[in-house]
Amino acid sequence: MPKLIDAHRLIGPVPFDDLPEDPRPEMDRLGVERAYVTHTLSLYSDAHAGNQALFALDDPRLVPVPVVVPEAFAPIPSWQVAMVRLCPERHRFDLTGPVALRWLDAIDAVVAVDLEETSPAQLLALTTRLPELRVLLLNPGYRRLRAIAELMSEAPNIWLEIGTVNTQRAVEWLAERFGARRLVWGTGAPVLDDCGPRFLLDHLELPEKDVELIARGGDLL
Amino acid sequence: MILDAHGHVGSWPDFLIPDPTADGLVSLMDRLGIDAMGISHLLGVGPDAEGGNRLAFEAAERHPGRFGVWQVYNPHHRNRLVTEGVWGVKIHPDVHQCPLDDPRYDPVWELGLPVLAHGQTDSPWSDPARFAVVAARHPGVPLLMGHTGLWPYGFARAARLAADHPNLYLETCGSKMTGRWIARLAELAGADRVLFGSDSCFLDLRVGYGRIALAPLGEADRALIQGGNLARILGGQA
Where is the Amidohydrolase-related domain (chain B) (predicted)? Predict the structure, then answer.
């Protein structure tokens, strides 16, 4: 595997477990070259403080994914980043409301959102309103494959992180329908597991070029 | 030797399983070097234990040596159980809506075979504390706590409960399990009390086994968890 990118990783402490705060030792152990990281402060404390801590990292292996909280009377961030993350449920904003739409229209970055933070219907509305937006759906799980497939069929600007796509041969099922280019390897570690998804990547029943494409972020990253 | 303590064949109503077949399981087991898997049929876990058990035995017969059968017992239907040619009994207190320590499950314990039960922290049916109660009542029955309680916030408690009962084992499958937690369980309860299970075909076999294969464990502990412990429990049945 020439290049492995984890599109979904956390850095920093979490309040509910004793987990490694620095992802790099585990990335080294599992052969992960780069990771798109969000700071846990942005999820479990203050989004601004977490983003500041993230920008201070200054390590090319850790690609910063700051958290955006759209607010009516605040300036739209002008960060030069490849990806931002949204938490509409946690931060209590409307993903398809006028403020979020205006902000997302202005931000030139991939938008990552956890399925637990939204719904397929909201994502369909969002991607229909903003067809140029590129959305990475994190943590889709394994129980909603039918809804995910419907969403991906209707919204060509949605890519899927596969770390939790965990029912038997589901990744192959998705690749057959949507192509490996729309599948993105990620884990959600250390809260979610990285060992199983790492092993899965080495044992997918797909052409080698497809596995390598998934490993480096599909055609999204 | 690699033995998977927790497998299934068949479909499940909640969601789409792209490959629910026994043949699909065996082809992945061959690729990963998994010698054998204990299975129950999901029809049996659901509404028809008798019919599901028949399908599980048929799958085992089609693939000699690759599947052990966990025959499902439904406490409402009181279906027939056998004592020969099986790995043991599978029960699912949450699906059955019958607490693990309810007397309606007594016919299961009376067999003396290993028992794999769904375990789910804070469930009124299968909280790990109920496993401790049953393990104390039936110290001769090896009792496998499926999913180690399922939710990460309950893993440490499940391990403490298992540590107090030598016939209680922690089985590792579940969508919230991590390789890191498997290593922690081995520290908390002892590597001789942790068993690899995948929940495949419900879940992907490669993800379930990958958590064992890549967990931050020493090789001796990994060997116990991925098969040594279950081989010891099953004796000549594995």
Answer: 4-235
